Inverse folding.
């Protein structure tokens, strides 16, 4: 086999451990707590089928043809209007581009802003897909730990004080992946204040925001951005369908213009048919009611997983009851989440080791991440029992 | 408005002149010879509508869910098998990934192979979307002129001899965009021989290959690649639909593995629904018969445009009758294609100036590119008459 000299930026980058786990378990009879997938019950398939048939009969020539890089104008307007009205996101200086999933908004933002050797600050642990997108432009990636209120802003300020190459602060303030944590309002304000003071951009990744099933909404950082220091990445993946790959990005107009150039050379535009389909769905259906249904479903599943953990967990895990999102984050008093994950997989339960989410890829974590949106109720009950058995054995051997 | 410090790689990159022309003329009553769009008549919409309805009724949970980065396994197998059987493309050491259009194959190949400051060789002129994708990783982009037989391989060899940083040779050997030219078999062999001797990868971009309406197929460079020196980028855009953004990339297995990592962080995977739709289309429909229909249509349109040019062209343009693809390339004996394009636009005829395709963005070209696949027969007749009037005036003023 020919040996390639890969580019420096990609040379060390490995496939996401999670997606490798998913590939390895695809089609196998395992209880999958390892995914980040929404439940298929969350897809408004009936309405989508109806709209799709209408597009094919009335408007196929536009739906199958090339579109413009910025995205379907109607969908851009509807998306931006909804963000403004419901969440006060976006000012006159902002614009919105449709992206091929929220992932692309993260990759393109990094591409247009970050030089090799620049510093990017992230929460630690954080979403591996975003960390790898950022790593693929070879910055100095600096992880900052979180506590109950979110990222340690004092530590962020220390870095900003001593490192004048910080270009981006990447955060998932609401239902953080993997920790499930929610950044407090005070921390959000403090982080934005730092970004303005040090003239650094915040990339607010917010795919789970609307999946709150208890507690009160906390304003996004972007909703407080009066100076253009926040890039907002959102997505229809968790509220309509992830397979269609439709996300969006709100940022100051001249930054969006540069992201458009980057998207043009990346994939020209997002799937045109599904942009039309989502636009029509938003026009004629009640997406807020649909999202309330998803929240009810996930609230039930989270409650079930939490109560099963209460039943079987004899101090193996530190657990917090989630108020939204897709994940629970379990911390053992000692040991290595990767070892536990391996033992659980051998018993037919797939979980993701916490180390997969660390800014330092060689570090060890006593945590694992569980997903509750995809598994059936029955799998949740069986899987948590098995997981706790495995943990009991693992920790007593330590 | 906040001023951003964009990354060095993106700082100088401008939106594609063509896409800006397309945006400016969208919805306006112009005769558009400026697009690169297939005809909507080339979309097998009826079959697609039927398959789409079936996917929604039988298999929506998979079609709307996350998929794997490599692409739908069935579609990968079908695509690879067809390339092997029909065109002898791919050896045991090769693999295939589904990409979000052929564009993404070009962008990802550059990302994984080319460091800033490395050299990339391209035909001059060449496809602006590819040149910009390559430029976005800040290489030294070196354009090599073409003659009737294609790229000047002696010049390529000179560069390879004196520059040890050449990483990639980007070519569109068949129905080149914008020149419409076809590289001779001898040149293809010579170029491959050079790539092997100097251990440099060729990126063969081949979206128009099957759109031949006269003359004989010439083997792709990839079909002669026994050593893994060719990356092959192909697409369903011109034979099924461009709006769905489905392309593919064939390359040695370990290179594909790295491209998978790059795609994972870029858009996770290509639109899952349309991968299933195309897979099912290939299974039950006769794509070769469908392509023969497209070739008949474009052969007619090319013939019409060529004969109208014969009628009105009094030495304003050097014209060659196309044997396939989407474009005609017109060269004036003097003057600037950009000036002609501006005058033609004022008369309601949109064409793309040749300078938009040059490796040196500040250079001037006496050429323009015309597309014949999208305009109606009536528009071709009217548009060519107007264009020749404008050229007569422009050249007499020179």
């Amino acid at each position: 086999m020919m040996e390639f000299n890969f580019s420096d930026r990609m040379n060390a980058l490995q496939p996401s451990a999670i997606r490798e786990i998913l590939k390895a378990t695809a089609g196998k009879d395992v209880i999958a707590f390892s995914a980040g997938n929404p439940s298929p019950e969350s897809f408004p398939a009936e309405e989508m089928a109806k709209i799709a048939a209408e597009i094919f009969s009335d408007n196929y020539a536009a739906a199958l043809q090339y579109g413009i890089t910025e995205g379907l104008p109607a969908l851009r307007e509807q998306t931006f209007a909804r963000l403004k009205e419901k969440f006060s996101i976006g000012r006159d200086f902002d614009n919105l581009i449709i992206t091929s999933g929220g992932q692309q908004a993260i990759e393109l933002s990094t591409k247009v802003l970050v030089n090799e050797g620049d510093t990017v600050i992230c929460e630690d642990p954080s979403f591996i897909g975003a960390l790898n997108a950022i790593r693929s432009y070879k910055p100095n990636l600096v992880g900052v730990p979180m506590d109950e209120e979110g990222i340690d802003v004092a530590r962020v300020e220390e870095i900003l004080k001593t490192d004048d190459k910080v270009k981006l602060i990447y955060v998932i303030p609401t239902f953080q992946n993997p920790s499930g944590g929610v950044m407090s309002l005070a921390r959000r304000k403090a982080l934005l204040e730092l970004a303005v003071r040090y003239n650094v951009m915040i990339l607010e990744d917010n795919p789970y925001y609307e999946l709150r099933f208890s507690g009160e909404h906390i304003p996004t950082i972007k909703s407080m951005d009066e100076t253009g220091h926040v890039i907002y990445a959102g997505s229809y993946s968790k509220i309509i369908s992830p397979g269609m790959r439709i996300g969006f990005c709100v940022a100051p107009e001249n930054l969006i213009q540069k992201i458009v150039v980057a998207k043009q050379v990346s994939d020209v535009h997002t799937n045109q048919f599904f942009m039309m389909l989502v636009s029509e769905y938003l026009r004629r259906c009640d997406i807020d009611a649909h999202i309330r249904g998803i929240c009810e479903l996930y609230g039930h599943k989270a409650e079930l997983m939490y109560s099963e953990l209460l039943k079987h967990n004899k101090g193996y895990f530190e657990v917090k009851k989630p108020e939204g999102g897709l994940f629970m984050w379990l911390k053992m008093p000692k040991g290595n989440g990767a070892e536990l994950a391996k033992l659980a997989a051998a018993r037919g339960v797939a979980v993701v080791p916490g180390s997969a989410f660390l800014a330092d890829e060689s570090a060890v974590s006593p945590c694992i991440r569980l997903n509750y949106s995809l598994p059936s109720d029955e799998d949740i009950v069986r899987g948590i029992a098995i997981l706790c058995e495995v943990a009991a054995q693992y920790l007593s051997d330590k």
